[in-house]
């Protein structure tokens, strides 16, 4: 039940059209904006449009997918080039202001007043290297756009569950693909180069051979170390998938979930899979038997021949009567139908943990709190299998933590203001019910605004990785300019 704000653009296209027009907003007599225009360095071109509260376009520039929190920055910088990002960071440094960055606004971080928001949605350059099976993208590029461009060459990236998710922000948090993640690992594992503006306003190139500590930390450490303005990463030859979802009645969960867990334990790495209780809206684009009801959605993606995929998935189809079956050979560009995420914008309230195992007792606890007779207010309660390449260290190490977990456990509620506290409390209860099987960790891209305490962020990393992250933070952002996120404070406090 998406809660659309009538004052915000409601589709990704509307938001991007407005932000691409940022130069027009800046040139049309925006009230007070000139006072916020630091002089650009010689030869860098015109400054970025800067918007203050009350200026035309200010509220639209803060439009986001997850509207559960509010941002009220002192100014929004509509960045079109890396030197615009540098302008913003240098201004913030001179005035001792924190800096946040937003492209798509998918993950709720922390609400804030004041500071500088750098909106990078217009930095949407894409270059595909067909010879090297790689891409270069700006921070405004979304997975849907990249997938379409790459597919022309039979290539695909480690996309998230939704095409409207930003490629760069997702990858800096690790990047857990529901399509080919177990086969290829995290998206961060395949980054080869970053251009990043650090707290001193310098544009640095970070690679395995240059700025090695920064390169290591940024890949997994989210936005704590600067603002990425360009990213190079590998693509894979995946023209098609055998993928989709099997929907079962929630009442069949006692048969379906154990069968899925046992099946997943034997699945090859070419299969990436999850199972979730999902509350289907009445108008959901699924067959009539599944609309408007709570279902168990078993998501499957197989990178391989469709006939072999059909054979592999057959035991799942036999687990219980199937209400809807979308698992079929599809072009990679249709990968979003695996999860069928809502279009947004929505007020989403999430909680998460990582599981070391999923025994029968954990499944029973999940059914009791999220199943047919639970009265759960949550829109989704998901268990996602990890392992495979996700458990292995990449050739060039990075800061992605907790690779030894077996599953992510994630819940999300979509609630109007009067139901927010009930949803939050229920989400916390669900996470608590998994405590006996949790490894105490979390996946940083799934952390919510309610999990932004330093100890929550620390849980996303092993102690050794977190200690090194804090040390790198001290070196490149000792004053903690980039703290308006799931923050890793400098080691020196």
From TrEMBL:
<dbReference type="InterPro" id="IPR016167">
    <property type="entry name" value="FAD-bd_PCMH_sub1"/>
</dbReference>
<feature type="region of interest" description="Disordered">
    <location>
        <begin position="36"/>
        <end position="55"/>
    </location>
</feature>
<dbReference type="InterPro" id="IPR036318">
    <property type="entry name" value="FAD-bd_PCMH-like_sf"/>
</dbReference>
<feature type="compositionally biased region" description="Low complexity">
    <location>
        <begin position="36"/>
        <end position="45"/>
    </location>
</feature>
<dbReference type="Pfam" id="PF01565">
    <property type="entry name" value="FAD_binding_4"/>
</dbReference>
<dbReference type="InterPro" id="IPR012951">
    <property type="entry name" value="BBE"/>
</dbReference>
<keyword id="KW-0285">Flavoprotein</keyword>
<keyword id="KW-0274">FAD</keyword>
<feature type="domain" description="FAD-binding PCMH-type">
    <location>
        <begin position="69"/>
        <end position="238"/>
    </location>
</feature>
<dbReference type="InterPro" id="IPR016169">
    <property type="entry name" value="FAD-bd_PCMH_sub2"/>
</dbReference>
<dbReference type="Pfam" id="PF08031">
    <property type="entry name" value="BBE"/>
</dbReference>
<comment type="similarity">
    <text>Belongs to the oxygen-dependent FAD-linked oxidoreductase family.</text>
</comment>
<dbReference type="InterPro" id="IPR050416">
    <property type="entry name" value="FAD-linked_Oxidoreductase"/>
</dbReference>
<dbReference type="InterPro" id="IPR016166">
    <property type="entry name" value="FAD-bd_PCMH"/>
</dbReference>
<keyword id="KW-0560">Oxidoreductase</keyword>
<protein>
    <recommendedName>
        <fullName>FAD-binding PCMH-type domain-containing protein</fullName>
    </recommendedName>
</protein>
<dbReference type="InterPro" id="IPR006094">
    <property type="entry name" value="Oxid_FAD_bind_N"/>
</dbReference>
<dbReference type="InterPro" id="IPR006311">
    <property type="entry name" value="TAT_signal"/>
</dbReference>
């Amino acid at each position: 039940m998406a809660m659309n704000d009538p004052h915000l653009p409601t589709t990704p296209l509307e938001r991007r059209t407005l932000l691409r027009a940022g130069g027009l907003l800046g040139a049309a007599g925006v009230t007070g904006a000139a006072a916020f225009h630091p002089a650009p360095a010689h030869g860098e071109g015109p400054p970025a449009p800067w918007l203050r509260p009350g200026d035309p376009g200010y509220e639209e520039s803060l439009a986001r997918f997850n509207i559960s929190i509010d941002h009220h920055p002192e100014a929004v910088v509509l960045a079109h080039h890396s030197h615009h990002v540098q302008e913003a960071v240098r201004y913030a440094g001179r005035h001792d202001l924190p800096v946040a960055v937003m492209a798509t606004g998918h993950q709720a971080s922390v609400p804030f007043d004041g500071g500088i928001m750098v909106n990078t949605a217009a930095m949407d350059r894409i270059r595909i290297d067909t010879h090297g099976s790689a891409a270069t993208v700006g921070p405004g590029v979304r997975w849907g756009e990249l997938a379409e461009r790459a597919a022309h060459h039979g290539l695909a990236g480690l996309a998230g569950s939704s095409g409207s998710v930003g490629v760069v922000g997702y990858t800096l948090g690790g990047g857990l693909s529901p399509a080919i993640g177990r086969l290829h690992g995290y998206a961060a594992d395949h980054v080869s180069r970053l251009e990043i503006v650090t707290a001193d306003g310098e544009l640095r190139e970070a690679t395995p051979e240059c700025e090695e500590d920064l390169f290591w930390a940024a890949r997994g450490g989210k936005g704590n170390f600067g603002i990425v303005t360009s990213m190079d990463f590998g693509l894979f030859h995946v023209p098609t998938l055998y993928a989709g979802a099997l929907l079962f009645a929630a009442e069949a969960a006692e048969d379906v979930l154990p069968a899925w867990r046992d099946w997943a334990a034997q699945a090859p790495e070419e299969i990436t899979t999850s199972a979730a209780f999902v509350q289907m809206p009445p108008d959901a684009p699924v067959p009539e038997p599944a609309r408007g009801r709570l279902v168990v959605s078993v998501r499957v993606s197989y990178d391989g021949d469709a006939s072999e995929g059909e054979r592999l998935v057959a035991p799942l189809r036999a687990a219980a009567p199937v209400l809807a079956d979308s698992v079929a050979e599809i072009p990679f560009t249709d990968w979003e139908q695996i999860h069928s995420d809502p279009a947004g914008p929505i007020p989403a309230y999430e909680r998460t943990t990582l599981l070391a195992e999923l025994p029968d007792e954990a499944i029973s606890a999940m059914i009791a709190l999220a199943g047919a007779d639970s009265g759960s207010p949550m829109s989704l309660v998901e268990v996602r299998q990890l392992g495979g390449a996700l458990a292995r260290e990449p050739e060039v190490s990075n800061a992605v933590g907790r690779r030894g977990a077996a599953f992510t456990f994630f819940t999300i509620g979509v609630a109007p203001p009067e139901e927010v506290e009930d949803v939050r409390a229920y989400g916390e209860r669900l996470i608590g019910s998994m405590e006996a099987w949790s490894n105490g960790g979390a996946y940083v891209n799934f952390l919510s605004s309610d999990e932004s305490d330093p100890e929550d962020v620390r849980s996303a990393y092993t102690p050794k990785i977190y200690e090194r992250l804090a040390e790198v933070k001290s070196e490149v952002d000792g004053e903690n300019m980039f703290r308006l996120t799931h923050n890793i404070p400098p080691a020196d406090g």
